[in-house]
């Protein structure tokens, strides 16, 4: 149970790495369609509020545990529980987090593989002149083809695990330092293009002028759940990254920077997407098909549409790539804690995730009618239960451990915010974030 020797080389590297863990499908695919389904500006306002009250304090709690333990998630939890005189069974929370991201990455890799297919199709101009019905039928045919899904799933997962196998400095850090600025550059270019369309003004009004009468309990629950999901809290990925955090970096400032960058991605993606949707007179509430059916139709009808659509799917691929790399890290760190080398651990994780992901691949064809639990096929099961129940449960237990169980001095040192800042954070976690997480968890169970 020795401390990890690996560290992020700079404070900027840590912020980009955690941002890479947070930014992904939740920002660029889920945020636009869930905002479209829940009233636009009202949802956005609630989402930002819950990022501050729920997501940010919980993110700090998870990073804090990793920084204080300086070990793999399982070892950090066991070590700190021993210091506090608490049950060593807390260490199993690290294994629960690894199993959670194992399930999530298995379907995440499959869905992220779709962006490879759509990027190639966009570059080839395959969507030009096709109706929404034709594009929708093409998408359905793609999902029903296990060979194409397997190829993209395999390619995407190989891209992911090769980077993880290279290690913190040579793999994760180098790629995050390259791809995250590229991702923001692409977002700014797409938002700049959106500003030239007729839908830019309506999109801004719809996103930033809230109708308070649209606030409902369902909208509030959706905003709470998304604020939790989008910051990658609850799976011990941030705990693994906290173990590599530089010694003299302010955790609150770093976490606040990550939260702002994460929200900025969602906002820029929303502006780019809804400007195009409104420019074509389409419905922003199209649901999950907004990304893979509505957008190809909308972009194809605009000047230079194939180029901009290609850039958009390149952006989606980069975002999901960085996020999947960071999802894989806690699993690899857990196996390293059991004595495996990083290369061996990465190979084991990659093969296991690929195997479970094949159940998701087949869920759109031969296993489409197979019901595993609760009337769901394998893809529906792994894309619902882990993100909606396991993540909030893991986040809740991590927050309880950080705010109630850990030795106070260890928490105080790891947070590095002074006694006043520490009391503010702990009270916010204890009396605001934990109750809100219980609401998110209860909503997922209902």
From TrEMBL:
Membrane topology of the entry: Multi-pass membrane protein
Transmembrane regions listed in the UniProt entry: 12-29, 41-65, 92-111, 153-172, 184-209, 221-244, 256-279, 307-328, 348-369, 389-407, 428-445
Top-level taxon: Bacteria
InterPro entries cross-referenced by the UniProt entry: Na/ntran_symport, SNS_sf, YocR/YhdH-like
Any single Gene Ontology cellular-component annotation: membrane
CDD domains given in the database record: SLC6sbd_Tyt1-Like
Compartment annotation: Membrane
Name used for this protein in its record: Transporter
Lineage: Bacteria, Pseudomonadati, Pseudomonadota, Gammaproteobacteria, Oceanospirillales
